[in-house]
Design brief:
about 160 residues; mainly alpha; 4 helices; about 65% helix
């Protein structure tokens, strides 16, 4: 059988897949670091120019707290479902000794669900601090009592 790539067979291509994946991941990480550094440098230069011209400096943007719990919750539910399905399917087809491989994604999913639970609690407490409500319930103010009726005895 003649291969398109000459003497490179599927076994050689299989070796290059993880190598190219790792190199690609490192390339993406380095690119993100460089772009982030350039963005910070540009912001710094803008602030320096504003100070030289005597323009009042705007406050740096505040970092918004991201809701990481929703992504972890979704991933945890998916992995838990996949792990449970794999565990049942493999245990049924191959036996309980082989079915333990399905427990790996199952427990990773459960770990993500637990992390999402704690992230949600932390996010909620940060939102309460941000909104000025320290977690205490403040009932709404009661309306003022109605004024007593006017003196009706002297009505002519």
């Amino acid at each position: 059988m003649h291969h398109v790539f000459g003497y490179i067979g599927p076994e050689h291509i299989a070796i290059f897949i993880p190598i190219i994946s790792v190199i690609g991941g490192v390339f993406i990480a380095i690119t993100a670091i460089i772009v982030g550094g350039r963005k910070k440098d540009q912001e710094h230069q803008e602030r320096l120019r504003a100070m030289e011209k005597g323009i009042p400096l705007p406050e740096p943007p505040q970092k918004e707290i991201k809701k990481t719990y929703s992504g972890r919750r979704a991933g945890g539910l998916v992995l838990t479902g996949i792990g449970l399905a794999l565990w049942i399917a493999i245990s049924t087809a191959e036996g309980p000794e082989e079915g333990v491989w399905g427990l790996i994604p199952l427990f990773i999913g459960l770990g993500l669900l637990i992390a999402a639970f704690f992230d949600k609690r932390e996010y909620d407490s940060e939102q309460e601090k941000k909104n000025g409500n320290g977690g205490t319930f403040t009932p709404p103010a009661r309306p003022a009592a109605p004024a007593p009726p006017a003196d009706t005895d002297n009505f002519v």
